[in-house]
């Protein structure tokens, strides 16, 4: 008669093997693209494929190329960079337009916008600029509401733009003549724009509206034609993303949900406030034993936490499931042919 302890051990082995098989099958069904957007862990589309807070919604409803959105928000994402811990998104331009009699605007679109989807994202202060377009226009950005200060918001910044006509407006130059730009504070997660009311009667023929937005500074170049910009226009901007479960790395290491428990990742402070971006160790720091591939393989990119990384050999690439922490168990790998790996 089989002893009970042996039966229990056999059953546990069977369950463990079944769980590993199911996990691999589940992970192999994770989509890695939405349209042209590469989606890699900690991001994911299907349930079980992403870390909490890093969900991507892939909208395939219109029959055209799929569109990626951050979580369940209406924020369209066009690029996710694991290397820099940033996502490029699109946001509609805010504006107000005028007529000959009204000092203030007769038509406007000034929605407040929160980019802090699931506590993951902050607006990048080193890759974006606050931008104002218009003649005789003044606008400011306000962010982070508070009840403790002398004013309703913690942060304010703004710009003034003026031009008597378009003769001194220079394409590609944002110097306060038709266009004004300034830096934004670090750590912003929401935006609310306001304009100061000036008469635009004199300027209507060449600058009937004022426009304000935060934009990727490497993308936007001012043009005189922007003085009559389409009010439906959207602009790209960068968001810093990070695992923000704790204020410091030391605090995070004591959590059961610590994101960087893999030997292939380290914790470091994020750009926008205290946070935990998934930063990889340099290749030379990684013990060879934890990369279960042949000697000819080359580790392309180790930007993922929880032992989720890409390796390349001459024929294929392998991906480690993020929820297995025992790097020595090769059965937790499965083969993904024609995998491009992380962007370098």
Structural account:
The protein is mostly beta strands and 344 residues long. It folds into two domains: 12-85 and 243-336, no CATH class; 91-117 and 125-235, no CATH class. 9% of the residues lie in helices and 31% in strands. It contains two helices and 23 strands. Strand 4 and strand 5 form a beta hairpin. The model is unreliable at 1-26 and 274-344 (pLDDT under 50).
Please supply descriptive tags for the structure shown above.
344 residues, mainly beta, six-stranded antiparallel beta sheet, five-stranded antiparallel beta sheet, 2 helices, disordered N terminus, WAK_GUB
Helix proportion: under 10%
Indicate the mean pLDDT.
74
Radius of gyration: 25 Å
Query: Widest sheet: strand order?
Result: 3-4-5-6-17-10
How would you spell out the order of helices and strands? Answer: HEEEEEEEEEEEEEEEEEHEEEEEE
Give the end-to-end Cα distance, rounded to a whole number of Å.
59 Å
Overall geometric form: elongated
**Major sheet description:** 6 strands, antiparallel
Q: Look at the helices and sheets and give the structural class.
A: mainly beta
The domain count comes to 2
Relative strand content? 25-35%
Q: Please give the number of β-strands.
A: 23
Organism: Musa acuminata subsp. malaccensis
GO molecular function, one term: polysaccharide binding
Keywords: Signal
InterPro entries: WAK_GUB
Produce the secondary structure layout:
Layout: H1 4-28, E1 33-34, E2 37-38, E3 56-59, E4 67-70, E5 76-81, E6 86-92, E7 94-97, E8 107-109, E9 113-114, E10 121-123, E11 128-133, E12 137-145, E13 153-161, E14 179-182, E15 190-195, E16 209-216, E17 234-241, H2 249-253, E18 265-267, E19 278-280, E20 298-301, E21 310-312, E22 317-320, E23 333-336
